[in-house]
Write a structure and sequence with these properties.
By secondary structure, this protein is α+β, with helices and mostly antiparallel strands. It has a domain at 62-181: Sandwich (Immunoglobulin-like). It contains two helices and ten strands; from the N terminus they run H-E-E-E-E-E-E-H-E-E-E-E. It has helices spanning 2-32, 128-134; strands at residues 62-69, 83-90, 98-105, 108-110, 113-118, 121-127, 141-152, 158-160, 164-172, 176-181. The strands form two sheets. Strands 3, 4, 7, 8, 9 and 10 form a six-stranded antiparallel beta sheet that branches. A four-stranded antiparallel beta sheet has the order 1-2-6-5.
Length: 183
């Protein structure tokens, strides 16, 4: 039992010595630091900058009309390359920089053949294959033609418009095609 008490006392003494040395080291460190002193430093110039920027709202194109709205028919099924729908459109406002248009049908990006401008009017033609890849017209299909304008600036950035539905193309039982301008 005596041995156990000695061991406890020696451990306690060791901890007290370590704590004492740590305290003395801290005290020496604080005393050795130089005191804060006044300096002659001062702000002599105001710091400021100047710049300009310009912003533009990129608008989606505006639809004019359809120059082609062809029925799918029943037999024979038109080949994928058959032109089915041609929409004529123009930019809603003059666009700065290099402009391109992205088309989506049913959320899928497709690339119609686009020509123009002729007096500011472009024509985009969608083929049977492009429309069929989105949805089969056999029992009726709805195609919403959505356009997004993208403007590439000379600084290398790209701005884009909000997607805008320009037209709806409806197929009734795969026979008749109805084309309607929506915007």
């Amino acid at each position: 039992m005596m041995r156990h008490d000695r061991r406890r006392r020696s451990q306690r003494l060791r901890r007290q010595l370590l704590a004492g040395f740590a305290f003395i080291g801290l005290l020496i460190g604080v005393v050795a630091l130089p005191l804060a002193s006044e300096t002659d430093a001062a702000w002599v110039d105001s710091e400021h900058g100047r710049g300009t920027f310009s912003a533009v709202v990129v608008q989606a194109p505006s639809a004019i009309d359809f120059s082609l709205c062809r029925d799918f028919g029943t037999v024979p099924v038109p080949p994928d390359s058959q032109q089915m729908v041609t929409i004529r459109w123009r930019w809603a406002a003059p666009m700065p920089g290099s402009v391109s248009t992205t088309w989506t049908v049913g959320g899928d990006a497709i690339s119609p053949t686009t020509t123009g401008p002729v007096n500011g009017v472009y024509s985009s033609t969608f083929t049977a294959g492009q429309l069929r890849s989105v949805e089969s017209p056999a029992f009726g299909a709805n195609y919403d033609l959505v356009a997004t304008a993208r403007v590439a600036t000379t600084q290398g950035s790209t701005w884009q418009s909000s997607p805008k539905e320009l037209a709806q193309v409806r197929s009734s039982w795969g026979l008749t095609l109805t084309c309607t301008i929506t915007a």
